Amino acid sequence: MDYFVQQLINGITLGSIYGLIAIGYTMVFGIIGMVNFAHGDVFMVAAFVALIAFLILTTWLGVTSLALALLIVLIAAMLFTSLVNWIIERLAYRPLRGSFRLAPLISAIGMSIFLSNFVQVSQGPRNKAIAPMVQGEFVLMNHGNYAVTVSLKQLIIWGVTAVLLACFWYLVAKTRLGRAQRACEQDQKMAALVGVNVDQTISMTFVIAAALAAVAGTLYLMYYGVVSFSDGFVPGVKAFTAAVLGGIG
């Protein structure tokens, strides 16, 4: 039983990270009906941005406050990754909107390959590791020689994910952008006829998806302390599976 509880805690932590990535898949698919296979590599780019930003803050600029460093790293990763995804949408997806369905899919796979190889060339093929960002754990149960623990970084991941999911629900259900997204999901032509800026709505959807992937990448780096150029594929596939099982779109 203790072993099951420990694995459940670990699974919820990983599921929180995959869930943030999965939202990006389901948002894009829901509005334009395309599976953005480059989304996993956007997550990987965010993890590298977080790594570089954290090293600059702690090594070069001498920032000693961990909370401040993590906040700055999170904001930097979200801004940079959102810009990357916005550019991808403008260059690789928007010109193919309305064409036969395989064209955007091939373009998405091409962007995935491009991002993976670009990071490999620019950062090198080896794993990039950093010292543990957050340390400390709490013992929940201790029976015999096996202790069930929850670490401070796991609690941070749970808290950040819960807050972001609540904000995302509010955005989709209560805001003007959310109404525009739901209108575009139902019928883009009719949404345009009633005054919805379809292109802007789709671009904002890509930006929001990238921001959530950036949070997931930062949390992934904080949790494991290591990142590689190939880390976009497996988490991306798992998050896409989660999106499909949860009802993509």
In short:
By secondary structure, the protein is mainly alpha-helical. Helices cover 74% and strands 7% of the residues.
Structure write-up:
With about 250 residues, the chain is mainly alpha-helical. Helix content is about 75%, strand content about 5%. It contains nine helices and four strands. It has helices spanning about 1-30, 40-60, 65-95, 100-125, 150-175, 175-185, 190-195, 200-225, 235-245, and strands at about 130, 135-145, 145-150, 225. The strands form two sheets. It has a two-stranded antiparallel sheet. A hairpin with a 2-residue loop joins strand 2 (about 135-145) and strand 3. Helix 5 crosses helix 6 (about 175-185). The two termini are about 35 Å apart.
Number of helices: 9
What is the CA-atom radius of gyration, in angstroms?
A: 19 Å
Oligomer: single chain
The shape, in one word, is globular
CA(first)-CA(last) distance: 36 Å
Work out the strand percent.
Answer: 5-15%
Strand order of the largest sheet: 1-4
Q: What is the tally of beta strands?
A: 4
Q: What structural class is derived from the secondary structure elements? A: mainly alpha
Largest sheet composition: 2 strands, antiparallel
Helix content: over 70%
The succession of helices and strands, N to C, reads: HHHHEEEHHHHEH
Low-confidence stretches: none
Give the mean pLDDT: 91
